[in-house]
Write a structure and sequence with these properties.
The chain is mainly alpha-helical. The chain contains 5 helices and 3 strands. The termini are far apart.
């Protein structure tokens, strides 16, 4: 039986972000981190261009996302404006290095998921 991956709505892409999030939680590496970041960046315009984004509550949430410093970092990474290095220590602590900044991967990841969870819980 054929497997179908449908990407016709922001919800479909959000579900992909959730799967990417789970992969990152399970195995922290540069590929999983970059995939998670890239999906988060692409999800925002999908939401913005959906017919449901016209409600004031949704617009407020979208403004919060695009002005969020972690989301901006996702966008900078995906667009190669900020280069990063991911370090996983022996005690499984994961840090991304962006310039001189060191950011905990799990806190960053959780923050991004909360931004988008807020949108999808409103609908």
């Amino acid at each position: 039986m054929a497997e179908i991956h449908e990407f016709e709505s922001p919800r479909n892409l959000y579900e992909k972000l959730v799967r990417d999030s789970q992969r990152l939680e399970k195995e922290v590496n540069g590929d999983n981190f970059f995939t998670f970041v890239s999906t988060a960046v692409v999800l925002q315009p999908w939401i913005k261009n959906s017919p449901l984004s016209s409600a004031e509550t949704m617009n407020r949430i979208m403004r919060k996302i695009v002005h969020d410093s972690n989301y901006k970092l996702c966008k900078d990474i995906a667009e190669a404006k900020s280069l990063f290095k991911l370090e996983v220590s022996d005690d499984n602590k994961a840090t991304i290095h962006v310039g001189k900044d060191k950011i905990d991967v799990f806190e960053f990841h959780s923050h991004i998921m909360n931004l988008f969870d807020n949108f999808f819980k409103q609908k």
